[in-house]
Predict the 3D structure of the following.
Amino acid sequence: MALVMIFLSGVVFAVGLGVSGMTQPEKVTSFLNVAGNWDPSLAFVMLGATVTYLLGHILILKRPAPAFAATFTLPTRRDIDRPLVIGSALFGVGWGLVGFCPGPALVSLVTGYESVIIFVLAMGVGMYAFEVLDLRFGKEPDGGAGLIVKS
Amino acid sequence: MTEFTPVTALIGGFLLGIAALSLLFFNGRVAGISGIFGGFLAFKRGDTLWRTVFIAGLLVGGVILTLFYPESIQFELKSSASTVMLAGLLVGIGSRMGSGCTSGHGICGIGRVSPRSLVAVATFMATGVAAAVTVHLIFGGKI
């Protein structure tokens, strides 16, 4: 049952990306390219997603535990460190160059487009390289979500 | 150029929020795609199955889009293969070094009002704008 719900979360996430327009790289670059014909749609995607999450997560975290896991596994760090800023800066450059971020790129694999396959392979190499080399920064498994917190 | 589509953007955003909440409710996890995919690649025993299942869901979602909303997932890219490769590397390294991407920081992090995520989003928005504007102004949209 747990796996079914995790699977459905992935399905809805992908459909949400498609409906919002985020599986169109040009939609992303048209938002980021403020010097061209600016398309503010991405801001509305963020608005819809963050407000939904903000309201919903407050209710969910009032529960003692997730439905199918022992604890909530959430990021607990609040400090701003150098890897956070440098990593995010590098990520932004890659994102703005082509208009792909990890979610839409994975979903778009089903198109079989050569560009998507190249992107996902390169992204995997980048992630794996960072994971393996650890680049002398502290390891933060699961996007800094390694620490178990809350209830 | 693309058209401004506020209504579908809001609806799609709402679905993204619901999907992320669902992962939190059932599995207690943040829906950060770079974290989930990176952890999948790193392969730790006992921590890979749920990641695989979630990624399978993403792909099946892609198939559903292809069947029922094909224009949402069809596109032409002006970027060259080498640019795409560079972008993929930067996104891969950057998202892991920065502990997240547009979903983990952008949706869940902002939604949790995490100071780290607010800084991350402001940073990747700024460099994303810089990259996209550079591609547009200096390379005429094709690089």
Summary: Residues 54 and 132 of chain A are 34 Å apart (CA to CA). Chain A touches chain B through 121 residues (CB under 8 Å).
